[in-house]
Amino acid sequence: MCGIVGYTGAQNAAPVLLEGLKKLEYRGYDSAGIAVMDQDRIEVSKVRGRIAALCEKTRDGASVPGCTGIGHTRWATHGAPTEENAHPHLSNDGRIAVVHNGIIENYIALREELLREGYHFLSETDTEVIVHLLEYYYRGNVRDALIKTANRLQGSYALGVICADEPGKVYAVREASPLILGIGLGEHFFASDVTALVSHTRSVIYLEDGEFAELSADSVRVFDCSGREIAKKTTRILWDVQAAEKGGYEHFMLKEIMEQPGAVKATIAPRIRDGKVLFAELEGLVPHLPSIRKIVITACGSAYYAGCAGKYALERLCRVPVGVELASELRYSDPLIDSGTLVIAISQSGETADTIAALRECRERGAATLAVVNVVGSSVASLADYTVYTWAGPEIAVATTKGYTTQVTVLYLLALFFAEHLYPDTFGLGRMAETVQTLPRRIQEAIDMNASIPALAAKYHRSPALFFIGRNTDYAAALEGALKMKEISYLHAEAYAAGELKHGTIALIGEHQPVIALCCNPAVMEKSLSNIVEVKSRGAEVLALTFRNNQKILSVADDLLFIPEVEALFSAAVEIVPLQLLAYHVARENGCDIDKPKNLAKSVTVE
Ligand code: F6R
Question: What ranges make up the beta strands (E) of 18-90?
Fold first, then answer.
């Protein structure tokens, strides 16, 4: 759960590393460090805290001269966030430095072995075994030592390594953690994410599991785990550099909320032609669709809630039972999954450890697997039989927004695509595809029609608790709305299926208790109205989310959020937008660190 960067070239390495680490801070931000090689000496500088503290300590890199180096931003897993536990870690002889993203599962056994060999440990991290193993195996050739070391490691790792005996060289190793090489002119880079590279180069190489690279100023060589050199394809990054920056917004989260019309459009546009949904990447799956007896969606957090929202469209249109399972639960539940199951794993980052493990479990049980992923070349994408990318672009804020809406949109498209193949004569599929095509416009309208949100946030931001209620598709959107509120504003927020209130939760509703009632599904509107009346008669203040012309709801609610009218089956992708904005403004009122909420990280690579 960390970010790593590396550089070799003609520039001073430290400022380049620090700039890259700032872009990766979303992956973890409790401590940071760099190691820079000057001639044949390695100098390490580390801090507890954020990259800004490292910049201060190194005078923006000026105090650590040298043109080759590696850097790390950490989210603690093994050992507290202290300077000792921060990376890079040094070998006992001070000649090798390592940064690591991932977890070494067998580190305890390795540590004991290395202690017996006389190595001293300075940290509590799992990572430190790597650098001592490298020293142990090093006989004048880093490549050989890396291969021998990698053979001993179990778990996931992206590594950056420098060795004082090989000035100007940086090594990068990938096993089940993302790692990308950046190809410059007379300089080369590596990073956990392309956002750390795009200001230097748009030519990148995606390393695969089991591969490692040797970078110098003028060469890039990639090897497989046996040391055989392999040819790799260079990919061009087409994102606007601005896309990885804040673009004038106060926070990445707000920028990403505002980007949703464009992001959802990018998800849909290549996939609908003449009223039909097309997925070239799923051609191989089409012949198997009639034999699929059930669909299981698995994911974590917001991606799981995206699954909850998409389930309605999949079940309604495909007439196949759809289960939505938390990835962290599914893998331990001896799931009833077999070759008649299609498993859809959803993940923005594609690196969520629980989702990866659930996907592996389902594959072993013979299921066909389909990944809905944003990050190209990520682990979830490479594990699944089929991958559909959400094309949301880089998402930097820890709290997902466009990641969620594009995931939900892909599920709508999949529902239509499967239905077109399973029941081509179904009436109205073309019209539904047209409705999905209008989602970008409706999301924009939902942004534009809620100018009162900052004022509502000012009214509600001190409430100790917020309840989100809704039925059916409204309930699915409420789940994600409540998660957004709690993770960035730190208010206690709970989503309830509105019909469940009277089975216990209504005991918590008293004078001035805010209840956010989602009322955008006509099939359950009367029932939702009754639930609003129930909570109002116990003193609740109701903030209703509905259509502008919904007179019944307008007349009972205290405050209002609006969306344009959208067919309920496809409305969660629009309903969530005012709730994201509400969470954002409540968090802003509360002075929270919106892009980096406490205790959270963007990419959850631990189970
Ligand atoms: C909430 C949030 C998390 C993620 C979850 C899964 O705003 O971002 O709940 O949705 O950690 O992450 P991915 O989609 O990367 O697998």
Answer: 31-38, 41-48, 68-74, 89-90
Fold of the domain built from segment(s) 447-590:
Rossmann fold (3.40.50)
User: Which residue is listed with tokens 């309903």?
Assistant: 575
Fold exhibited by the domain 246-437 = Rossmann fold (3.40.50)
pLDDT tens digit string along 429-457?
999 999 999 999 999 999 999 999 999 99
Residue 504 is classified by DSSP as T
First to last CA, the chain: 11
Torsion of CA 461, 466, 470, 475, to 10 degrees: 90
Residue found by looking up tokens 């890079």 in the block: 88
DSSP-derived letter for residue 278 is -
Alpha helices in 319-370 (DSSP H): 327-330, 353-364
pLDDT at residue 242, rounded to an integer: 64
Q: What CATH number should be reported for the domain whose range is 3-243? A: 3.60.20.10
Sign of CA dihedral 419, 420, 423, 427: positive
Contact between 186 and 2 (Cβ < 8 Å)? no
Question: Which residue out of 302, 351, 383, 489 has the highest number of ligand 1 atoms within 8 Å of its CB and is therefore the one to mutate?
Answer: 302
Q: Quick check: 343 and 367 in contact, CB under 8 A? A: yes
Reported as a single tens digit per residue, the pLDDT across 296-310 is 999 999 999 999 999
Delimiting residues of CATH 3.40.50.10490 domain(s) in the chain = 246-437, 447-590
Mutate which of 300, 330, 579 for ligand 1 pocket (most atoms within 8 A of beta carbon): 300
Residues designated catalytic: 2, 602
pLDDT, average across residues 402-428: 96
pTM: 0.79
Residue 526 host element (H or E): helix 525-536
Alpha helices in 160-276 (DSSP H): 252-258, 260-268
Q: Provide the pLDDT for residue 89.
A: 98
pLDDT band at 30 (very low <50, low <70, confident <90, very high): confident
Cis peptide, bond prior to residue 464, ω within 30 of zero:
no
Relative orientation angle of helices 572-589 and 402-422, to the nearest 10 degrees: 170
Which atom of ligand 1 is closest in space to residue 305's alpha carbon? 10
